[in-house]
User: Fold this.
Amino acid sequence: MESQEEVAPPRARAGRRVLIAAVTGCLVLGGTLMVLPWQPSRTRAPAPPAPGAQARAAVTAGVPAALPDLAVLIGEREAHLRGHPRDAESWAVLGAAYMEQGRRTAQSGYYPKADQALRRSLKVRSTAEALGGMAALANARRDFPAAKRWGEAALKREPKRWTTYPALIDAYTGLGDWKAAGRALERLQELRGGPAVMARAGGVYRDRGWREDAMAQFTDAAAGAGAPAERAAYLERVGQLAWERGDREPALRHFQEAVRLDPDQRAAQAGQGRVLAALGRTSEALSAYRMALAKRPDPQYALELGELYESVGLRQAAEVQYDLLRERVRGAAAGGADEELVLGVFEADHGFPDEAVRRLRAEWRRQPGIAVADALGWALHRAGQDEEALRYAMVATDRTKGGGVRSAPYAYHRGMIERQLEKYGPARRHLQEALRINPYFSPLWARSAREALTALGEPPVAEVPVEEVPVADAKAEP
Assistant:
């Protein structure tokens, strides 16, 4: 049965609204109508989105989300899908959430679950969202050829879906195709603006060696970010850029602010470890690394912590970290993640260089990115194959081949290889460049760079040829 309000004619309803408006601000006391002074209405600020909704908005837009919010989202989607197994969109969201959880925690066990959820989404209905999720998952596993295939398939399905382009930028970068990465960024910027796009631009600019432009993009992204976890992720990149150019105190401030905003920002905690070690605050550095590793067992952090122990003479403690590194690489492989790069770098310096060469050659054939070129060149040098090593070191540092990033370790590696080949002038130049970019780039290898420069000594002073001046003709006029 319809209520009186529902069946009232429009004129009657309008009359009531006028009457209500006329007596707004009035109070009836003892039958007397009193007019109260007008006060502006105080509208309550909208409540923030629930954790699951906030995480869903983040993962579908490809931006960092807080780990507790991700856990809520995963629980919600799992419960929903038990009753709605044909919901392709929810399967795609769940897969993206699993992937992000695995990436943030370095727990590769989430990756098979993400793969299963995304494939289930594709089986129900093939969408650009699920294809893009597969591309992002492949990037997280460092499988850049697969990321390229999935990303280009998503792009073919929906060319104007902007969230596909960041995954393609990562894939092209990992494959060493810096021109394609640049084109993908340009298209992304045409389709979308905002902090997430600024952060992507910052990454591309950093790889091209445009450090000031990269810093501006990451700083603006952090300023414009909405959620604390997103802002913390961009501040971590600002800190990393500052660290890469040797600005220790600014880098530490950015890393500390990132951790304050998001205590689960383990990359920033490891960043604090790097900077504190460079500042001579070794005990604090060790503590920062240990906290980062406790929650995010990343093999790269274990390598850095091991080298820090080694730099202060704690060889046994270093070996413990190196053993943990090997164990974590094996665990990552079980989840389908490729950690051959960090394992190759470790083997070259602390294990078996020939094994490093074997692993990194295979990695180069599969995905010839700049980081792999540098690592393979260094492994070849450590294995005594310096002529071939220099070719890869030149790829990593040659702007015309995409190696535009200003990296102190890359310059150091090239300089040491050139020194071994008795190319003393270029060796001196690249070792000086490494220390000029970041004098503190490694607790072990920055010291090695300084020692090598001292051994090379000052460049010889070339004799200035004396130009013969013709004797003036005695008969010439003055």
The chain is about 70% helix and 0% strand. The beta strands are 26-29, 32-35. The chain has a mean pLDDT of 89.
